[in-house]
Each structure stands twice: as C-alpha cells, then as structure tokens.
Amino acid sequence: MFGGLGADRLVAEQVLRCLEPLGLQAALQAIEGLQGVEEERLAQKRLALQRARYEVSRAQRQYDTVDPTNRVVAGSLEKRWNDALAVQARLEDEVAELLRQRPDVLSEETKEAVLALAEDLPRLWEHPETSPDVRKRILRTAIKEIVVTSEGDSVRFIVHWQGGDHTELQLKKTPTGRHSRVTSVETIELITSLARLQPDERIAATINRLGHRTAHGQTWTAARVCAIRKGHGVAAYREGERQERGELTVDEAAAALQVTHTSVLRLIRQKDLVAKQACRNAPWTIRQNDLDEFLATRAGQGPSTRVSGQLTLDI
C-alpha cells in the first residue's frame, strides 16, 4: 500500500511537464487551422460560383444566337440556361451562409490570451472549475498505462505513454502515522521550552500572540498544547520547579531588589542584569546566581539609595 495523493501529484506533474510545449503548439495550430479550414472552404465555394456564372453567361449567349423558329434547339438551350441559373443561385446562397458563419479573425489580444493559457497549464489543471473527469480524459489521452511496484520504503512507477515511450518515477512512502498536516518543528520546540516555565494555558496565549497556528490553521488552546506535549513526551509545568532550578521571574527579582517591575526590565535591556527569554512575549527568566552576582557587583561600586521605588546606584 502507498498514499494516493503523492502518486497523483507526481504523475500530474510529469504529464504537465510533457504537455507544456505541446499545449503551446496546439494553441497555435488551433488558431491557424480554424481560420485556414474556413478560408479554404470559402475559396472553393467562390471558385465554384465563378464557374457557375461562366456557365450561365455561356448558356445565355448560346440561347441568344439560336434561331427562335427552331423551337427544339431553343427549348433545350433555355433549359440549360435555367439550370445554370439555379446552380448559380444555390452557390450564391452557400457562399453567403459561409460568410455569415465565418469565424471572426482573432485579435492580437485574443491570441496572446490563448497563448498565455497554453503556457500556464498547471494553473488550469489546479483551477477549481476543472473537474476530475477533465483531468482523467487528459491523462488517458497522454498515458497508456502505469505499472507500479512497491519496493521497501519507496514506490517505482513506469509510465507508458501513448506514443510508445516510457518514463520511470520514484516516490518515497509516507511513514506510518505521518501525514501532511503536522505541527511545525519551530512550534514544537517553542512549546517544549515554554513547558518548563508556564502552564499550558499560558503557553497557548504566548504562541498565539506570536502568530503560531496548529497544523489545521487553528489557534492554540490549553488542550491542544497538552496534546502536543504528550505526543512528544514533554512533561507538564509543575509549580515550584523553577525555584528548584534557582530561577526567578521579573516580579520575584523586583521583590528581591525591592524595586519595580519596570526597573528590572530596564536593567535587563541595559544588560546590567543577565536574563533569558525563550521567545518574544515569553517571560524573562533570571537565575538566582546572576541576581546575587549583580547585587555583589553593585555593592562593590558604592552605597545605594532608593528613590520613588527605583534602585539608584551611586558610582
């Protein structure tokens, strides 16, 4: 067994690749051939009409020169003249009908549009109004048969074309349990890193703000984050694990320094205080050792005073 979608795309791409130059040539031949056939038919009818008019003129001359008293000859010539007139009238009607049905000469804009369509067969193939029946008719016109052989983790296709040639194609099988709609590696890595910092509902809010979506294009929820975690063996966030690793949040660092939340963010932006962030909009993580080192460094630089809840240092 093997997936049909991949095989379908592979064969379709090969058919379109082979038909692209033929499509352009067929468009040119269709434009020239349609007009050429009609012009040839019209030219033949006009030539026949010209001969019929000559026969009418000749029959009239013969009738005019005969002795009227010779009724047998005169009657015969009159009948020949009338028959020629009938043929002429019929041919004139046929020429008029051909002129009426004659296709309009394609403008340059129309030709360019047709040629552009012929050069863009893939877009026509994928167009929503192109039915599967039309695609099948195209395939059957170009391909006689396809011999498929399953060989381990790949599939070999021998495409036998109607002209007698054949093409060999290879397709890798989709591993069991895998499908085309999968969560991106970047999102999975982000969930894995955030799982050590936040519960599932907070992780969902963070990655939604970053614009990440599920494999089906949906927004993230705590349940969907949980499903990804369990599918990749990532443990859920546990209260207290940050403290066990010696990690502080911005609010905890602000409380330790007895300053505001904004002051700690300013120290981080100025790179005075070492902190890490898993991604944009994710919480900052400050190691207790880095905070202690910051305090020790500032203490060695001189006394400090606190003004309006902000830490100011005298250098």
Give structural notes:
The protein has 315 residues and is of the alpha+beta class. It is built from twelve helices and eight strands. Helices cover 60% and strands 13% of the residues. The strands form three sheets. It has a three-stranded antiparallel β-sheet with strand order 1-2-3. Strands 4-6-5 form a three-stranded antiparallel β-sheet. A hairpin with a 2-residue loop joins β1 (143-151) and β2. It is elongated. The chain starts with a helix and ends with a strand.
Mean pLDDT rating: 80
In total, the number of domains comes to 3
Whole-number radius of gyration?
43 Å
Show unreliable segments. 303-315
What percent of residues are in strands? Answer: 5-15%
Principal-axes geometry comes out as elongated
Largest sheet entry = 3 strands, antiparallel
Query: What's the SSE pattern?
Result: HHHHHEEEHHHHEHHEEHEE
Tally of individual helices: 12
Q: Could you tell me how far the N terminus lies from the C terminus, measured between alpha carbons in angstroms?
A: 75 Å
Write down how many β-strands occur, each being a DSSP E stretch of 2 or more residues: 8
Strand order of the largest sheet: 1-2-3
Level of helix content? 55-70%
Structural class: alpha+beta
